[in-house]
Amino acid sequence: MSTLSDFNQQLLQFLNASPTPFHAVSSMTELLINAGFIPLKENEDWSLKDFQGYFITRNDSSIIVFTTGNQQYTKHGWRFVGAHTDSPCLKVKPNADLYQQNYWQLGVEVYGGALLNPWYDRDLSLAGRVTFLNNQKQMCSTLINFEEPIAIIPSLAIHLDRNANKERSINPQTDIPPILGLIAEDSTEKPTLNKLLIDQLNSTGHQDIKEILDYELCFYDKQPPALVGLKKEFIASARLDNLLSCFIGLHALVNSDYQSNEVPCLLVCNDHEEVGSQSHCGAQGPFLQQTLTRIIGCPITTAKVMSDSLMISVDNAHGIHPNYADRHDANHGPILNHGPVIKQNCNQRYATNSETAAIYKWLSQQQNAPFQSFIVRTDMACGSTIGPITAGELGVKTLDIGVPTFAMHSPRELTGNQDGYTLNKVLQTFFKTPQLPS
């Protein structure tokens, strides 16, 4: 098993290499191939073998990873872990070019429930997927990542808005288009995003681009992930919600001794959770159900398997902020580095019930691992996860759990340096346990 230091260093590398869901899935694919997992394609027949690991992607932004065990799927049931690959961000509009006061800007949409204030005054880069027509008139798609800071959203100086610290609001249409550069006074041709994309792709080896057809691009904070604090007890990074959970689940599955483990295990990381999950690759779409149908076959057998299976939905939890402790229920304020958080809500915004919570506590006891509980204040609205959606789609018992986090949905979030590692160890135990308590 990796040490805490090794785990966190690998996590930081994964976060840095994954500025978009497309890049996250690409990073996971590389890790899986190196670990001996075999890629599958949806439009081909599958011939699965015992004690082997496989993975399949959809839309380049969602991934399902599974191990077959001895393929006696009704003997133990499945061990499921779910997470999501997307994070709130600023997505570039289709006709994005803006020219104002001799500045070149790009229009953006706000994806998900983003905290907008922290996007100001940051070194921004651009990444995503580009679809183009090549010189042979074939349609191709590729990932793009500028890596260097190419844009910024400057704040309005306080001299021009004396009430900024009291009541400044943000209009997402007019106030946040990033600035990419100045337009020269003698310029005869304005810069365009399409030309920028072609130049960038040409510089990275794509020499046969005839025309940019479309793109899915988002800006991201170029500041790399880091261990911070006097004793380096915190992890600061973009996209901890929810790439942290993706990495925890992947690391646990890859290290679950799948080549000798009889228990079939599966990790699903869906895109579009932050905007409701209803898409062909989201948790409310058919991706997971269709994949399980192909693996297990008979609907009757699938129903039997689900009755003995458990889904652990892993998504970050709200740690109690020392400056805003009154935003928490007094008895349910998770503290960073005090263990993963069991998330419960009687209105089914989380899918945890007393039995699934008890199973997680039992698994934690096997590792002598700490855990905490979270319930939102009764007078506040509660967020949700893929947990209730997946439970409803599959009819599988489900637990919602996550690592306590500050500044969720900011471009720079914060977690403890130990909680992810703790959850990883418990999930490894979960994957390798032949019989869960009932």
From TrEMBL:
Pfam families the record matches: Peptidase_M18 (PF02127)
Keywords, ordered alphabetically: Aminopeptidase, Hydrolase, Metal-binding, Metalloprotease, Protease, Zinc
SUPFAM superfamilies, sorted: Aminopeptidase/glucanase lid domain, Zn-dependent exopeptidases
NCBIfam families in the record: PRK02813.1
The protein's name: M18 family aminopeptidase
Annotated organism of origin: Zooshikella harenae
Tagged with keyword Cell wall biogenesis/degradation: no
Family: Belongs to the peptidase M18 family.
